[in-house]
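Honest question from a wet-lab person: if I give you the sequences of every part of a complex, can you actually get the arrangement of the whole thing, not just the pieces? Trying it with mine:
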Amino acid sequence: MALKNPAQAWLAANRLMYGPRSGDLAHIDDIGVDAFIEEQLSSTRPDSDVLRAKLQPLTTLLMTPMELAQAAQEKRGNILLELNQSTILHSVYGERQLQELTVDFWTNHFNIYFGKNQDRFLKTIDDREVIRPHALGRFRDLLDASAHSPAMLVYLDNVTNRKGAPNENYARELMELHTIGVNGGYTQGDVKEVARAFTGWTVRPDNKANPNPDSGMFVFNPRQHDDDAKTILGQTLPARGGEHDATLVLDMLAKHPACATFISAKLARRFISDQPPSNAIQAGAAAFIKSDGDIKATLGAILHSAEFKTSFGQKLKRPYDLLISSLRALDADTDGGLPIQAALVQMGQPLFQWQFPNGYPDAAGAWSGAGTLLARWNLGIALGANGLKGSHVDFGALNPGKGADLIETLSTHFFGSSLPATAREALKPFATNSAQLTALMLASPLYQMRG
Amino acid sequence: MNLANLTQYPGALPARLPWERMPRLAFAPASQAPHGDVIVCIFQRGGKDGLNVVIPTFDANYHKLRPTIAIPDPKSGDPKTAIDLDGRFSLHPALAKLKPLYDDGALAIAHACGSPDPTHSHFDAMDYMERGTPGAHTLTTGWLARHLASLDNGNKSQLRAVGISTMLQSSLHGEIPAIALRSIADFHLRAQPKNIESLQKTLSALYALPAISNPGLSNAAQEALDISQILTKVNASVYKPANGATYPAGDFAKGLQQVAQLIKAEVGLEVACVDIGGWDTHANEGTTDGTLARLLTDLGDSLAAFYTDLGNKTKNVIVVTMSEFGRRAHENGSGGTDHGHANVMFLLGGGVSGGKVYGDWPTLAPDKLAAPGDLAVTTDYRDILAEVVSKRLNNPKLDQVFPNYTPNMRGLFIQA
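Yes, you can. This is the full assembly:
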């Protein structure tokens, strides 16, 4: 049945989901975009049996820090492989799609490079206990969880931030990247003072002689805390604040007006446009302040803005978006395994492998070079030929049968509507070859756009 | 496991499919030969600790500021000490392979270099440095792109500027076509040979359709198709380094080897950017062993292999190393160093007046440090780059490469 407003449904399915699976476009078209936004923001739909069955063998996902440390040491299981699989499987099969997109957003916002020291196993905990539970919750809770996250404490060196000789790494990025932004009004002096406030925030070491089940988890070490008074962003923290010093800093930063604008602008960039419209940023920032940093309220204000509905063609899929949307559109049966992950390497976006604390760039320019484009095409060709081990597409199900117009059928399947006549003409030499038509549609410029 | 290394993927795509072997072709179209040197710009991302790379052994404050991470003073025959350069400065021993190049005069060192902008943010500092416009975000083009755009040498090659990366470096953003290239061997359509031509034709047609594309994507698609044809002929799989050069394992060396390959294939390359990360040593930096030593071994061994591999061609190659800032003069409580200011640059090539450490030494005396305790900048990094542009790249239009700046040439290079 033809959709009432295929363009709007297509946009929503690509911005609030990793692209449509069969039935999604009809559903969005049926209830309308605004209702769909609300549905996604408040969705409590349980994981499907398929997803649960696919996640079940990934044993490292549920391990404690010490179990993970041991697995890493004995090279048992494959922690990075399974964390990648978990992420890909959640993205492809997850029922709460907007939640999955915000997981991706915060994973990059609070980026942690898997290759840094113990983060080769601690990132699994960060994903499970910091990013996923709070992705659509309160920003202050998310920030708190991140500040206490062993993986973050290791990544930005706060594990060794101690009295008398502070380490500025976390303090600086906390302000520059996590909360108020580089123009948020802090000085080098503030960086030093915030570093002092976080002295003693560390990870409980493993003591072989006297094993403790809390090893590998956050611990405040009062002996390493600088307990003198501090002045941060013009505000004085009195002496003897202890562990509470840093909590006050997190409060201060999360409530700072620059934080509301910084977070809102970044969400608007992710969900609307590389040049986020100021109306949407202001609406998001106002909602952030009014709701005391509720991420749902903030994102809702941005998505309900007039600019969202007219933002066609303003977001390019990052390679990860392209991979997941392709698998969803093809209704592929995937294990999220190595060949799929290798495609992400080729396209330049391997998960948890960005070294710098700012996360993968969210701008078309970073992802539209000739080399990336070629790797994108090769993904389409490989999927069209069922050439990636661990991911299978049933092309029989896509084929309409003898006599039908294959180009028309597949373009409706992949784009929700017919392609322009010029594009259909260009595809004509492949009119009877569903593998190559699929490859070309996934490789086409239109499919590189996030709606 | 490092996911960036595809060879660790059992079951992933094979490195080469049987039909992907192509005959090697010779390239030497005269019109595509660069007029000046090929510049290889190496960016050490994260903020390299220049004070432990080229050590001011003669500065009495050095050991005081770094009680646990100082590199021991040179002691002849002891490989766990710094290598003396000129009686004043010494080299981290992990860079031992660069010492012969210094002695031969191919390597010059410029110390206490940096940007006049005091930012300690990685991202602002990198931006300023790669755009060549400290303190200003107004110009969105990079210094290397402006160099190429202002140099009318008739080189029409699409491989004039290459960034070894999946993402193009900011210094190459601009009006000239520049290409981000991760791997020469992978840069082609992986389809059955009988289908390649029709796929190329159709992709080219689809990306040119305004109804479903845009000019940026359309250009990139055409570039991808054209360059994949050239690179297929360069033929990555049979590359053998010359002169007994042995590149170490790792992405950086692999990147340099690919630059060497492009230089030798004479495909019109004028500018190459290669990144090497991991320099943000806030903790456990180490001394003659440890994090920094490992990074420097990779850097030094790779550069030495590159130089050996290129042989005579180094006459017309200039390698420049940069980093967004140096690190704090005093160590922190983590056995590392926080973000600082001035740094050291390496200049390597046939046209370098090497064998010398250049730069006015501001000293590490407490009253000479720049806030909040950093080595002060006495040479603007643009002075070094401008001299490269003018003397080695034969481009007199310095006002376009570094607008609103009058460089002070320091005499590091021989006029080409």
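Two things worth pointing out. The radius of gyration of chain A is 23 Å. Residues 119-134 of chain A form the longest helix (16 residues).
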